[in-house]
Amino acid sequence: MASGQNSLRLMVEHWLAPDPAMGVRVTKFINRRSKRECYVCVETLRTDGPVAIFFFRHQDGAWHVFPPAPERLAMLAV
User: Fold this and answer.
1) Residue 55: how many other CB atoms lie within 10 Å
2) Exposed e or buried b per residue across 4-14, where buried means at least 16 C-beta atoms within 10 angstroms of its C-beta
3) Which residues pair with 43 in a beta bridge?
4) Helix (H, G, I), strand (E, B) or coil at 17
5) pTM of the model
6) Largest CA distance in the chain
7) Terminal alpha carbon distance of the chain
8) Domain range summary for the chain, segments of one domain joined by +
């Protein structure tokens, strides 16, 4: 499970530092369980215009600004 240090809310506050008066909004949300793919695009307004960042959910439940590494095929000898 994700620790509180990698919650989506804390990541948005860390990377976007949104103005409470302006708020933030999710502009895109994808959750494809069959492909183990989950990400959101979060946007906020600043004085110089809108700013958006994609956040990706990793297998441990933590959110990051980089996508998780793809799973590679592996062979196991028994």
Assistant:
1) 21
2) eebeeeebbee
3) 25, 52
4) coil
5) 0.76
6) 61
7) 31
8) 4-64
User: Helices (H), strands (E): how many in the chain?
Assistant: 1, 4
Which 3 state secondary structure label does DSSP give 5? helix
The sheet that has 49-57: what strands, in order across it?
24-32, 37-46, 49-57, 63-64
What's the pLDDT tens digit per position in 3-12? 556 789 899 9
Q: List, for residues 37-58, the tens digit of each pLDDT value.
A: 899 999 998 888 899 999 999 9
Phi, psi of 6 (to 5 degrees): -120, 30
Phi, psi angle pair for 16, to nearest 5°: -105, -25
Give the closest residue to 53 by CA, choosing from 77, 71, 28: 28
Dihedral of alpha carbons 41, 44, 47, 49, sign: positive
